[in-house]
Task: inverse folding
């Protein structure tokens, strides 16, 4: 939750639509490309909905007491990712900083984001609750990778010590690996060691949690 709140805080600077703030300061060479800028704002503003909808998926109380809200928010989350953010982020990845390392990192992240989200959808349709939960954790971990990226950059980047392009490219991969590592630790801590999971009837699980 803390990661999500911090991400929302960093996004607010873009509501001014100025092109000399935050991340845009480092993208002046493509600011004139209206297609790129359009996809950037689509991603930035739609990710807010994605973050908020995704947060609801980890509330046990909401799952037990307001299951319909959980389902609606879940659909908003996955449609947001698959129909809006994955396509937008793919375009942004092509123009990424960090050279080939950064571009390849963002493309892998984007494809992995789509994959784990689709697996989560397929799992819940088959009533495989454990698998669904695990892959939703992985999906949300990728959703919040941008914040990990910014934290690492803020803590470790020194202009006189590192090439910005190399640091940026490596940071893309490191941030992704950190978030996926945390997600796997969360899954293991809950005792869901396998990403395959067992098929559990949704009604039975709901009763066992009450």
Result:
């Amino acid at each position: 939750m803390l990661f999500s709140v911090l991400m929302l805080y960093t996004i607010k600077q873009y509501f001014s639509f100025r092109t000399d703030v935050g991340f845009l300061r480092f993208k002046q060479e493509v600011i004139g490309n209206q297609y790129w800028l359009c996809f950037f704002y689509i991603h930035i503003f739609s990710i807010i909905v994605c973050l908020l909808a995704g947060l609801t998926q980890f509330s046990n109380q909401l799952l037990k007491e307001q299951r319909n809200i959980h389902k609606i928010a879940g659909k908003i989350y996955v449609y947001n990712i698959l129909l809006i953010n994955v396509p937008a982020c793919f375009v942004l990845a092509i123009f990424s900083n960090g050279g080939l390392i950064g571009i390849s990192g963002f493309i892998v992240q984007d494809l992995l984001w789509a994959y784990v989200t689709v697996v989560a959808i397929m799992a819940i349709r088959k009533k495989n609750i454990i698998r669904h939960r695990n892959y939703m954790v992985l999906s949300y971990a990728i959703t919040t990778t941008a914040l990990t990226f910014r934290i690492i950059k803020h803590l470790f980047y020194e202009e006189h010590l590192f090439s910005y392009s190399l640091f940026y490219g490596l940071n893309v991969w490191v941030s992704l690996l950190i978030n996926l590592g945390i997600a796997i630790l969360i899954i293991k801590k809950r005792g869901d060691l396998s990403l395959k999971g067992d098929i559990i009837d949704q009604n039975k699980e709901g009763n066992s949690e009450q």
